[in-house]
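In the laboratory, one determines a bound structure by crystallizing the protein with its ligand and collecting diffraction data. In a computational setting the workflow is compressed into a single prediction: the sequence and the ligand go in, and a structural description comes out. We illustrate the idea with 1-deoxynojirimycin.
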Amino acid sequence: MKRSWWKEGVVYQLYPISFKDSNGDGIGDLRGIIEKLDYLKELGVSIIWLNPIYKSPNDDNGYDISGYRDIMDEFGTMEDFDVLLEEVHRREMKLVMDLVVNHTSDEHPWFIQSKKSGTNPYTDYYIWKKGKDGKPPNNWGSVFSGSAWQYEEERDEYYLHLFSKKQPDLNWENERVREEIYDMMTYWFEKGIDGFRMDVINFISKTGEFPDGQRRQDGLYGDFNPLVLNGPKVHEYLQEMHRKVLSKYDVMTVGECPGVSPELAKKYVGEDRNELSMIFQFEHMDIDHDGCKWCFKPWKLTKLKETLSKWQEELESDGWNSLYLNNHDQPRLVSRFGDDKEYRLESAKMLATMLHTMKGTPYIYQGEEIGMTNVRFDSIRDYKDIETLNAYEEMVKGGIMEEEVFMDGVYRNGRDNARTPVHWDDSENAGFTTGIPWIKVNPNYKEVNVKQALANKDSIFYYYKRLIELRKEHEVIVYGRFKEYYKESEQVYCYGRELDGKRLLVVLNFKKEEVDFEIPLELRETHKEILISNYRDVKMGDSFTLRPFEAIVFMM
Ligand code: NOJ
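The predicted complex, in structure-token form:
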């Protein structure tokens, strides 16, 4: 397997609006990030991925871009960006940006031209269709509620928007669109950035036909997913992008790819495919709800293990995994897969142990390293996320779901869980801003904050730091072969890693109940050392009892 810096590194995902505000306007900004680079260096991460910082009217927190070569006013200036890049590199870290090219903002100059009647160079930059009997061209529903089509009077046509109506989908069939995108990517690479995280990149190739989709669970609209995801030309486009841009630089790419199985993933990340370095797959993010994001379904450890192990095994010799349990679109990992109350420390460390000892590149989402949790705002009015707010209108106001049931869904799965400001200390607004934060701070910031974590050697922060160091010290953690034990256990996840005679054994108790455990037969009576554990005084021997959320990594 080829070695590379992005396989050996650890990524820190930074959601700028909520990271650190430097000027008191309540919105995180680039200067705020610069202030905190030493903190990230101390943690030990080597790659920073920034969610979008481009010019944007902020309908979807920067995922609606109106200027690809400009910085969002609220975040600062291009000069600030240049300083940020320099400061990141000076600390020997890499900077990865978000690439959002499935769609732009409707305020992007291309769209402003495109929606005009008559013909101009931008007429075909987006996906326009005639309506059918005064209705949209097909029944597709948008991810953010309502139809995926918006009527534009001037053209007497509808444009496609898989996300909000302020996010029109670009027409990748148009070669000029692709060239514009490649030029823009080159612009950023020439500035010196180290890679891109590519937003819903497997959505870019839409079929020539736009048939109705199967009715979704809510009965309102048709599902575009099977008709859009992994479209017929997606690999052709990515290979073209690679040839024209990516191959010229030593960079990493990670494609956000919902609806991708390991088999399909190999097409995106196979070593000789010349497409992407890795993808974000979603199979493990779907285990606690069925189709409907707001409807909870209890998850089973065997299902989580089956999914993660399958990805480990399938990409063993070709391709590379990204390892994540949360991000800006997902609830906090400790609230979802651990216990964010009594065993917050133990379970956050246990989950971190898993993320950092599997094969792939770990991604830490801001605040995860101090064990930040989900939030429960009393009123829907305190929520800011377009997905949540639109769904509330459609589902609750539309009489499809009881308010209580919907809010339970929001508490469990809403995107704002991850978007509340980072807790820097226990002062007002958690030290995030001296002004009024754009979204309320999670009230638990007095107990959960960076200042406190840095003052306590047993904190989650220092546990992450140690895990990151271990990856640097032991190649087996990065490149070792994966092997699972006790697949049928509903309580323990146990797996080994092996490289050139070095072995690791990872034992994770996923429950708050104790459980008896025996070292797998083939590894008994081997000399073992404990590499890391989330409890002190770990018992050695071939059988022992695992305490609540206990995690132990043995080295052999
Ligand atoms: C995926 C991004 O992660 C999410 O935040 C965004 O809303 C959609 N893509 C649309 O860009």
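Residues 60, 63, 100, 163, 199-200, 256, 328-329 surround 1-deoxynojirimycin (CB under 6 Å). Keep in mind that any predicted model is a hypothesis to be tested, not a measurement.
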